[in-house]
Amino acid sequence: MANLRATMDKVADPRRLDGVAEQKSDVFVWMISIIALVSTIAVFHVWSRVKVVDLNIAVGDLRRELKEQEQEQNRLKLEVASLKIPARIESLAKGELGMSLPTEQQVVQVR
Predict the structure, then answer these.
(1) Residue 4 and residue 72: Cα distance in Å, rounded?
(2) Euclidean distance between CA atoms 66 and 4, whole angstroms
(3) What distance in Å separates the CA atoms of residue 47 and residue 53, rounded to the nearest whole number?
(4) Buried b vs exposed e over 56-77: b needs ≥16 C-beta within 10 Å?
C-alpha cells in the first residue's frame, strides 16, 4: 500500500491540468493573433514603401519627358520664327514659284 500511495502522489490531478491547458490555448490564440496582426502591418508597410519608390521613378520619368517636350517646343518655335521671315518667303516665291513683285499696272486700288 505504501508503494501504491507513492505512485499515486506522482500522478497529476486532472482537474488542475484542465485549467493550465485552457490558459495555454488562450495564450496561444492570443499570440497567433498578435503575430498575424504584426505580419499584416509589416506587409502593408513594405508594400507602401515599394509603391512610393515606384511613384518616385514614375515622377522622374515624367519630369524627364516634360523637359524633352519643352525643348522640342522651343525648337519648333524657333523653326516657325525662321520660316516666317519675309525675306525667306520672298526668295521662295521668286525662286520656286516663279513669282515677282507686281508692277504699277497690276496693282488695283479698292475703295
Answers:
(1) 101
(2) 92
(3) 10
(4) eeeeeeeeeeeeeeeeeeeeee
CA distance 53 to 79: 39
The DSSP secondary structure of 37-54, one letter per residue, reads HHHHHHHHHHHHHHHHHH
Say what the alpha-carbon torsion angle 38, 43, 45, 51 is, to the nearest 10 degrees.
Answer: -170
Q: 10-residue block means of pLDDT along the chain (111 residues)?
A: 55 55 81 97 98 98 98 97 92 91 88 84
To which residue does cell 514659284 refer? 97
CA 69 – CA 93 distance, rounded (Å): 33
Helical residues (DSSP H) of the chain, grouped into ranges: 2-9, 14-83, 86-95
Q: Among 30, 12, 10, which Cα is nearest to 22's?
A: 30
The pTM of the whole model exceeds 0.90: no
